[in-house]
What does this fold into?
Amino acid sequence: MNNQESKEIIKPKRVISRREFLKFSGIVVVSVGVGGCIVNDGEVEDSQGYLLVDTKKCQGCLTCMLACSLVHEGYESLSLARIQVVQNPFENFPDDINIAQCRQCVDPVCIEACPTRALYADEENGHIRTVDKNKCIGWLGCRACVTACPYEPGRSIWNFQKGHAQTCDLCANASFWNEQGGLEGKQACVELCPMKAIKFTTEIPEQLGDEGYNVNLRDEVWEALGYPAD
Amino acid sequence: MENLSTPSKKVISQILQEVDFKDRIIGYSINFRSGPDRISLYSLEEVFALLNAPYPQIDFNQLAMWVRDVIKDEKLADRIKTVIVQKAGNRDTVLRIRDLIGWRLIQCKLDV
Amino acid sequence: MSGYTGKILRINLTSRRVSTLKTSDYEQWGGGHGIGSALFFDLVKDKTISGFDPANVVTIMTSPLTGTMAVGATARTEVQGIGVQLYPFEWFTRSGFGGRFGPMLKFAGWDGVVIEGKAESPVWVDIRDGNVRIKDANALWGLDTWQTQETIWQEASGGNDYGSWIKTGFRGEKSTQRPAVLTIGPAGESLCRVASLIHDAGNASGQGGFGGVWGSKNLKAISVMGTGNIAVADPNALIEARLWAMENYTFPLDEYNSSKSIWANMPSNLRSFPLPMLTWERPQQSRPQACMGCQAACRSRYDPGFGNESSCKETSFYIAPAYGGGQIHRLISSLPAAGGSGEILNKLYASETPDVAKQAADLAQKYGINTGELETGIPYMRDLYKMGVLGPGKQIDCDLPFDEYGNYDFVEKLIKMISSREGIGDDLAEGFCRAAERWGRLEEDLTTGLLNNCHWGVGMHFDPRTQVEWGYGSILGDRDINEHGFCPLYMIPTVAQFVLPGGVPVTAEEFAKIFSDRMTPFEDDPLMLNYSDANMYSEHIAKLVAWHRYYSRFWIQSVLFCDTQYPDFFNWAAQDYMGITGEGEPKFFNAVTGKNLSFADGIELGRKIWNLDNAIWTLQGRHRDDVQFADYIYELPSPKLGAFTMPVNENGEWEYATVGPRSIDRTKFEEFKTRYYELEGWGTETGWPTRSTLESLGLESVADELEDKGKLGEE
It folds into this structure.
């Protein structure tokens, strides 16, 4: 199941722009261990959208990953999918599958860690936590959000092909799909999951632990199919 | 299993025996993706197992004769014949004969 | 190039040279089987060699749709080469498997892998995107297939647990996924002719004996980690196609009820519900588990995990105890005077574990043995034992515990003996036909049918005497076809009698037309689907067989649509039962590749591939005289029991009728072959392709090679 090892949460002091950073830093590699780095000290508004999953209902087909990468990148990719399904074929049910979706955390340490506010809560899209890739300095070596995410595997995905971070944006900017995404629209993984094991909700899930995000989406039909309803 | 009395020890040993090659009875189990599986059945228990398959196929009259002449359980054979003449349809006939045989096996295997 | 990665990995195990082939040189063949056959033709100069010869080339090919969301085409991979299982000829053959290996290969940037030569000592191939290394496998040799994969996964993760991002390269590439591994088990290492290739827990390339071929090359495993991309020409069109397929050709999940369950597993049509294809009872504590991209799983994972990912024959080859325990329990608990059902169950089956069938499946997967061979072989051995000719100290000396038949001990010992070639296992490792030959029983047992292996040494799947397209397709090819496209024609009328009030919802004539209407270029001939006695050897049936070859060679085995779901002719969820085939396949193909291939184009490409395959078999030494079933198919009628109800047209009237008992008439079969060869444009004296046919397909070079060897079919 989800590994919730928490990592040291870095609280940077003030926000600087990408330009200032490039001008003054003089260093190529930025790590959260380097002191005097950057800050975001405001409260972040809660996201108005969340993804819930049911790992007992998942059939491990990875269609969500194929869908996510296709609508965001325009091609299929497992490594760039913003939802990850990890499975062990030899393990007993239900421990054989783990689903790692972005939690749109109420207290987003990834946003707090980001030195340039590239990762931010998008006011125009219900405060969905998302990345403005034009502001991301990951290509210079910053992976602050990637490291800051307290969940395993980290939900802020390092796009090693394009050199920027990316996170689940609830398909607000899924440009390769003619459907509208975001809060008013559809999420590709939700639409395409054949088992309906992913659900979109506007209610804030319980933040502590997994029960808020890994829920029971099974019903009497699932039981009629011969699978466990609890 | 109304009215079938507990068999004698001798009959029990016949019912539970494995027969020889020449005395086997052939059944089939239809499998959706692999067609009819031909199965050599060497005991009443194996017949019972086949009749629990989703789509078993066996010649019921031949089965009754086999139970009488090879297994030598006349009473069970008679009961099977009774079911056959009811002409209940393939599926129901299978289930009734299966239950008959199942009960007979329970009688044989338990200390009742 | 959309869909394709553009590169095929070429590995020479003798020289340890790793190189690249350009997919564009073979793109005209579509993918999968087409490319594999073309590569084999080019790379294997002497096609008469044994499958164990280092010069045998094994191809593992994906299609442009692999790794994309094309329904039913995401996950299959095609393995080809000279197989060692088939009897009496080691035909150039094929065997597919699912899971996630093919997609991972694509994500790594490879459309396929070509294996040549033989390594001096055991090796495995470690593919991480473009970085390919041939590594020493001495530590893996001897491990079962599951241990092998877990060991490789450990190495790939640097000893860390999975569940984090793992670096796979030096440019920041990373993945959360375990490497996709294809491996042999101990059976392959012993050069068993019935050894398979295994991937994850239950995906198997079973037929053909490719496990033994790899063993002969000292190749233990191929592992691939892919962090790259698969280009899709029109992402939106692909998604729309998927949603269109789901909406129009499948039932929504929440419309499931038990009346639909039987049809959910009926071959062949688009799957609606995640109901695994199992023979054993499926425990509730389980999940459906699907190949990558599939919309409705055909297998499961369990708690406990016995039987994970096994399906079909893997679940039925050792079924004896599978019914007894669970069913008796239900019987007992439903009877009012039963008393304590648990106590009764314990008394009845104290020594029996209900998981035997699952454990047997796991053994076959771990040791890497083809369960198709065991399915007819195990009952054969038991019959011989009961006859008194096989057993300890008997004419066929066999140290297997037949008093434990049906229990775990028996199947465990059997599988271990085959894998290690110990005792009688050395005979069985050759396949049951060769074993019977060693025992001096082959002719007799193929005349009586005691050994139920009816074509090319492979066990009967559907009966050639009744399901004619299955039998003819198999014997005119290289193996049991395992292509279920026309199964609905016999399964639905047969089962409908049991479960549907009123039977099949369409008349036999309508049923035939639902199929024939899509069978371009023969769509004007619904008599192709007439299974009557009088029609068995006709040109109508010749067209049925031909169409089936073409469709399967291209759309199933080259583009890699899963045989479980395609062709989708008759579909319960579709309007007027008209399935997706004809429209669906090209829709997905073109959305991914950006091409404009029609369904008919694909059928014609399938014909081209089929001709190339026949050319290869011809060069291997085939002649029409070799194309013969086992004797019992001619000598004995098909059984009345287990007979199917099928569409039949006699005297101009269509109806559903039970077909058989009947056998194949030798003389009429010879006439049928002639008719078939004429239809294909092959020499009727030999069955060899003619120059004019090959040239009409753009295969001049193939005609040249045949001519060079004196093997061109007479015009």
